[in-house]
Amino acid sequence: MKCNIEARTNGKGHWSDEERLVIIHKLEIGYSSLNYYPEEPFHGELRAYFEPHGFTRGSWNVAGYGLIYTDRQWMQEFKIGLKELGLSIRAVQNVNYSEQGMQGQDFVSMDVGPAFWKSWSRLLKKQAKEEEATTFMDNV
Fold first, then answer.
1. Global pTM value
2. How far apart are CA 59 and CA 135, in angstroms?
3. 17 phi/psi in degrees, rounded to 5
4. For the chain (length 140 residues), average pLDDT per consecutive 10?
5. Rounded to whole angstroms, how far apart are CA atoms 18 and 45?
6. Nearest 5°: phi and psi at 131?
7. Positive or negative: CA dihedral 72, 75, 77, 80
8. Sheet holding 19-32, edge to edge
9. Cα(18)–Cα(137) distance, rounded to whole angstroms?
10. What is d(CA 107, CA 130) in angstroms, rounded to the nearest whole number?
11. Residue 11's pLDDT is what?
12. Which residues, in sequence order, are bridge partners of residue 107?
C-alpha cells in the first residue's frame, strides 16, 4: 500500500542516537501466518519502507544511522500516521516492533495480529473501490 507517513526518531533508541525525519512511502505485509495456518488467527509482519540512501529528506541509512528499532518517538508518530491512513485505533494498538535484527536496509519490521489484519483488509478493499471509481470516471 502506498502511503506518506512522516515519523521522527529522537535518538533515544538502543541502536541509534540519530534525530531524523523518516518518510514511509510504502506498507506491506511481509510474513503472514495465513499462508501456513489459514485456520488460525492472523499473525504477521508489517513492513514500513523508507528510502535507504540517507542523503535526502526523509531517508534513513541503516549503516550510517543504526536501527530505528526501539525508538519510541518514531513508533508513536508512525502509529499516528497509520490512524490518518484509516486504520482503526484497535489495529494501530496491535502494532509493535519485531524482535531485534528484523529491520531491513529499507524497511522497519513490526509484528501485527488479528485486530490489525481486520482493519488492514477493510482499508485495502476501500482503496481498491476508490481506485476503481476513479479509473471509471477517467474513462467516461
1. 0.90
2. 31
3. -110, 15
4. 97 93 97 91 95 93 94 98 97 90 88 96 91 68
5. 25
6. -65, -40
7. negative
8. 2-10, 19-32, 44-49, 107-112, 96-97
9. 46
10. 27
11. 93
12. 49
